[in-house]
Amino acid sequence: MRACAAAMNEFLQACRAAIGAPHVLTDAHDTAGYLTDQRGRYTGRALAVLRPADSAEVAAVVRLCAQFAVPLVPQGGNTGLVLGSVPDQQGNAVVLSLRRLNRIRAVDALNNTITVESGCVLQHLQEQAAAAGRLFPLSLAAEGSCTIGGNLSTNAGGTGVLRYGNTRELCLGLEVVTAQGEIMSSLKGLRKDNTGYDLRDLFIGAEGTLGVITAAVMKLFPQPRAQVTALAALPHPAQALQLLQLAQAHCGPALTGFELMSDFCLQLVRKHFPEQRLPFDRPHPQYVLLELSDSESEEHARALFEGLIGTALEQGLVDDAVIAASLAQSRALWRLRESISSAQAHEGKNIKHDISVPISRIAEFIAATDVLVQQAAPGCRMVTFGHLGDGNLHYNVSPPEGVADRDFIARQAAINRVVHDSVDRFGGSISAEHGLGALKREEITRYKSPVELQLMRAIKLALDPQQLMNPGKVL
Questions:
Q1: What are phi and psi of 48, to 5 degrees?
Q2: What domains are defined for the chain?
Q3: In the sheet where 104-108 sits, what is the strand order?
Q4: Whether pTM exceeds 0.85
Q5: Per-residue pLDDT of the chain (475 residues; tens, 9 = 90+)
Q6: Residue span of the signal peptide, if any (predicted)?
Q7: Which of 115, 181, 206, 279 is in Cβ range 3.0-4.6 Å of 63 for a Cys bridge?
Q8: In 3D, which of 281, 218, 232 has the Cα closest to residue 261?
Q9: What is the DSSP letter of 72?
């Protein structure tokens, strides 16, 4: 034990020399914010929190971890929901915070790219793109605190996937520190580079288990001349799917957002944020939030929407609809959608599922799985919302009225099994955009084939033979 303690003291001293003593945090007061997950359900332990300033310092820290066999947990904004960015209870790992790697290295408006360090907050990236007259389309509720490195490591989705794709589709190149402490730099910003294995895609979505992303080249797009939002009320998710098909035919690539929300979702929003109002005189079972990004004009976008909504009303797909008449109204409609998760948190504990199924089967999945969940937990309340346009639902379960949070959460494993087995039957995935982390590490073994798992383990072993990179996550 003394030899081990001496080695760890030597390791920490070497870290202080490499990145500066003020950025090696060991005091409990200083490390607390890095050790608890975003939902406040789990707190791990760590040897230290290390805060390097640039890629070279990250590489130096990783080399020291390899030398002293110290596990490391990369962390960006710590906004994840699957325990992917916090350490376990062993206390022998370090948290590698990347928040100081927050520079915009370059903006190339002609190439429509921005080169950014992994600790850059997503909202700052969006703002820098806008200042250059460009759009960075990745948008999520946590954009004020999540970082682009975390977005890449989890292959985050968000509200613009329908038009622009996941974070993977927005990335053209990476700078990565390998498990051996070497820097792989591929920041060329090329849209075509057919020279062997696509190493970039190995690290995107790997949750820091194969290496540490330190910078990336991300795609930019021309700023739309107009963004127009509408909210449609309808009776059932089946009508929402028909509306999606109609909207894609009517609006083409201008359709950039298509979000499904059940009435109970918005009941929670109205309960906990009473200043927010629905623009309808009565409640409806389901709602769809649509957004158009138009390259011509606001008048053209509004005419597209009016034609779409008129046809949808004639065909009986929607019961009512409103088109935002101003930027303030558009923001108010989006605020309804973005407040659902916060309203859930105010309501109490809930069991979250970030799932995807083929778009064509979403209505069938919801109908069938709602019945199964009610059988498993009678009286539970379904908080179903998400990115219908790309097949991703946040299929969350709140306890029945009057049931204590602790008693309900004790049934989490049984409810997860019902939901995940149903997802599997419908040909879906138990993690659409949040990742696996530690929370779903064991669960995924039920749904991935042995061949897939074997290949994943082989890649992990090849790139991280000491098994030090974010241990206990994904695999």
A1: -170, 165
A2: 2-97 (3.30.43.10), 104-222 (3.30.465.10), 226-329 (3.30.70.2190), 348-432 (3.30.70.2740)
A3: 104-108, 113-117, 211-219, 171-178, 183-186
A4: yes
A5: 555 888 999 999 999 999 999 999 999 999 999 999 988 889 999 999 999 999 999 999 999 999 999 999 999 999 998 999 999 999 999 999 999 999 999 999 999 999 999 999 999 999 999 999 999 999 988 899 999 999 999 999 988 899 999 999 999 999 999 999 999 999 999 999 999 999 999 999 999 999 999 999 999 999 999 999 999 999 999 999 999 999 999 999 999 999 999 999 999 999 999 999 999 999 999 999 999 998 888 899 899 999 999 999 999 999 999 999 988 999 999 999 999 999 999 999 899 999 999 999 999 999 999 999 999 999 999 999 999 999 999 999 999 998 998 899 999 999 999 999 999 999 999 999 999 999 999 999 999 999 999 999 999 999 999 999 999 999 9
A6: none
A7: 181
A8: 232
A9: E
Asked if 137 and 160 count as a contact pair (C-beta separation under 8 A), the reply is yes
Structure tokens at 98: 């990347």
- Distance from C-alpha of 43 to C-alpha of 37, rounded to nearest angstrom: 7
Which residue is associated with the tokens 């127009």? Answer: 228
The two tokens of residue 306 are 């009016």
